[in-house]
Amino acid sequence: MRLILLGAPGAGKGTQAKKLSEKYGIPRISTGDILREAMQKGTALGLKAKSYMDSGQLVPDDVVIGIVEEKLKDKECIKGWILDGFPRTLQQAQALDRILTGIRTSIGHVLNFEVNEEKIIKRISGRRSCESCQSAYHIYFNRPQKDGVCDSCGGRLIQRNDDKEETVRERLKVYQEKTQPLVSYYSERSLLKKIEADDDIENVFTRICSFVL
Ligand code: AP5
Known about the structure:
alpha/beta, 8 strands, globular, three-stranded antiparallel sheet, five-stranded parallel sheet, binds BIS(adenosine)-5'-pentaphosphate, 9 helices
């Protein structure tokens, strides 16, 4: 299984990537999670990424390409991988093609999550994330067993810094400008599968599983 999950912020990519990773035992590479973890630890990478992420802008291509290249070359990824939040620009997509050619593999499917903007705002405004393991919850659609506490690791649930309304609007604008062009990049190569992601979490998951096997 070698998957790219494409879609606007809040479309549900992280939620589905996690479920796929658990069900099929395939590693999930989430550039957003890696960058947030680096920020939390205060590493050089985190310090570099912070101002971009807090303002809803993309982190420079060379930074994220380096992160993904290192992960894909790891032996953990021999059985497959799920890319969540990468690529997000044409330059990243072209770099990914070069990396995959170099390690003699290729993309299986690109799943394009389609959700209307009104729903996206609702999903993001109610999202709560675990500050330790980054699992995503929702105050209505995906509640933890105990309010404010992560089911997986017991960590504290918080609202992401970039989930403020004005930053979300900026992220949606950046998505339209920089990432949306990847839809035609992959559909021209017959790799793109449209996922109706407006439905509830389990129905979307069932739909994806029927595509990827
Ligand atoms: P990143 O973390 O990748 O954020 P994103 O793409 O904006 O995606 P989100 O995490 O907001 O949404 P999602 O689609 O994963 O939705 P989720 O499953 O959480 O990136 C953050 C920042 O990092 C970027 O802005 C950028 O600065 C930087 N960055 C990352 N990658 C980069 C790259 N490649 N290049 C440059 N910069 C990069 O779901 C959202 C909510 O809805 C949750 O509460 C969830 O519980 C709920 N939910 C999910 N599915 C459903 C459903 N079907 N029904 C109801 N609720 C649902």
